[in-house]
Amino acid sequence: MLTVSLLHAHLSRCRSARHLLQIHAQFLASGLLADAFAASRLLLFTTSDAARRLVPRPLDHSLRLLRLVRSPNAFCCNTVLKAALRQGLPHLCLPLYASMPALPDAYTYPILAAACAARGDAGEGRQLHSHAVRHGFGDDVYLRNALTHMYSACGCVADARRVFDEGPVWDAVSWNTILAAYVRAGDIEQAIRVFARMPERSSAAVSSMVALFGRCGMVDEAKRAFDEAEHRDAFTWTAMISCFERNGHFMEALGVFSDMRGEGWPVDEAVMVSVVAACTRSEVLRNGEVCHGMVFRAGLGSRLNVQNALIHMYSSCLDVAAARRLFDSGESLDHFSWNSMIAGYLKNGRVEDAKTLFSVMPDKDNVSWSTMISGCVQNNQSSEALTVFDSMKAHGIRPDEVTLVSVISACTNLSALAQGKSVHEYIREYQYNVTIVLGTSLIDMYMKCGCLDAALEVFDTVEVKGTPCWNAVIVGLAINGLVTKSLDMFSEMEASGTAVPNEITFTGVLSACRHAGLVEEGRQFFKLMQNKYRVVPNIRHYGCMVDLLGRAGYVKEAEDLIQSMPMSPDVPAWGALLGACWKHGDSEVGERVGRKLVELDPHHDGFQTMLSNIYASEGMWQCVKDLRGSMKQHVAKAAGYSVVQPSHSS
């Protein structure tokens, strides 16, 4: 006769589906169906991981058993509900609850709340909440925590907060759950308030806040929370490392990792991915190699995320051979693995290797195509980029905005107006939203191809015109000689209130003034950029002003401006001033500038010739003779050759 103790013994030795069915049959024959406790033992086993390995659909087996039990209790029903949730079938939980042969208890509703959270169904969650209150469980802290999490998971943070506030008592889980709700929603202000009120800050709470501060760029606040934490675990350390890495503090990330190791914490997959990423972005290969050794010793080398991080690290640090060895040794590669390897080849200028790998990639995603196209553009193979784009469309892959911007850049580089128009037509046909980035690339392409009307038409279609769009129009009009229109657009930009001029804007404006010889306007813009917009002039701004003043004959003012530059003047700026001296016959300044240029670039025979002419105009023949002697010493004339290669007879 089967007893509860014998049932337990049989279940502990059950190793096959046949054995389980035999136990089931003995259970039915023994009359234990009337014993809710015995039934719960068998149900508990049939919903376990061990049973899942024995029978193909263990939940069906458990449901049939539950229907046979004469008087099942809430524990039996909860066991089946929990099994449905654990096996990834949360949609079955509420129907099972509706047909429960026993009254729910305090543990039933938290399971159902977790099912609603997994489904993200706030409507079902609210119905469940009402049922729980009706059955007298509304003040149960365990249930209130589950409901808080459920509302948060469904995106209803206000409902989650209301459940929290209505609770008569709160435990540590209550505080952690409402904090997690605000962290998940990215509500930094409310998260800070809750964190400040917490009677005890667990390591989970500190980890959540450090991670949230990191996502919001609040590195100092994250470090303060980390330093003040009474309790830290591996997740807290990982969150701090990730915060530093995410916000560009790579050496600090590695420093925290060193401290973590010094305190004896073991490394796991998550922390090593962040640490390798910090090594990647700091471009210190030696640190990455040390981390690679640590990964190997920790037995994490076969983890896909770690492999991908290492492939990306070696590719970014120009050791593409090491990256390829890791790639070839990978047992299971994903899109990131392939894309990282292709990007690594492209970054290292090995376009043919990238094309070869790309051609055998089994399942190319949008990132794969975009990586290949942008890589070709960056390696001055714009024609190849357009070929890859045509292939992408032929495969039925719809490009994203990043890909389209790269393709338009390729058209711009090739001055391929027809193909640029074709891409623009594609954008219209598939009704892409012309964002600031996409619109700016189209405007730039049309401007550089001389299609001003088309560029302005695109400009008008961009709904939110940011600074880059205005810059593309202002600079484009200037390089096409429409100086007045360019300066008018600058005035419109100032009046728009939607964009603030930056250093690129003033490069365009000053270039326009230089081309048109608008000296007074140039002076005003040069002051405006500094006094009103707080833009610090860079070497290009100074170069424009020197050229503008020099061309107009203000040679001494141009020289004074060069001398006042906070950075070392470059050769083009000195060259522009020398040209102005020659044009306007200012031999005194020209001689000083010419000598400076000869020192900076002794092999530039054009500058030496111009200085020689200045000497000659002043009758300084000995200086002419000395300079020409110096030219013979420094300037090695290249042997002449024909640009048309002679044909070779076979």
- Evaluate the radius of gyration: 36 Å
Beta content comes to under 5%
Helix % is: over 70%
- Structural classification: mainly alpha
Low-confidence runs (pLDDT<50, min 5 residues)? 635-650
Oligomerization state of this entry? single chain
Shape: elongated
* Overall pLDDT score: 86
Number of DSSP E strands = 0
Largest β-sheet summary: none
Q: Would you kindly provide a written description of the structure presented here, covering whatever features stand out?
A:
It holds the Pfam family PPR_2. PPR repeats lie at residues 171-205, 233-267, 334-364, 365-399. This is Pentatricopeptide repeat-containing protein. The protein has helices at 4-12, 17-30, 36-46, 49-52, 58-68, 74-86, 93-98, 108-119, 122-134, 141-153, 157-166, 172-185, 188-197, 203-215, 219-228, 234-246, 250-262, 269-282, 285-297, 304-316, 320-329, 335-347, 351-360, 366-378, 382-394, 401-414, 417-429, 436-448, 452-461, 467-479, 483-496, 503-516, 519-531, 539-551, 555-564, 571-584, 587-600, 605-617, 621-634. With 650 residues, the chain is mainly α.
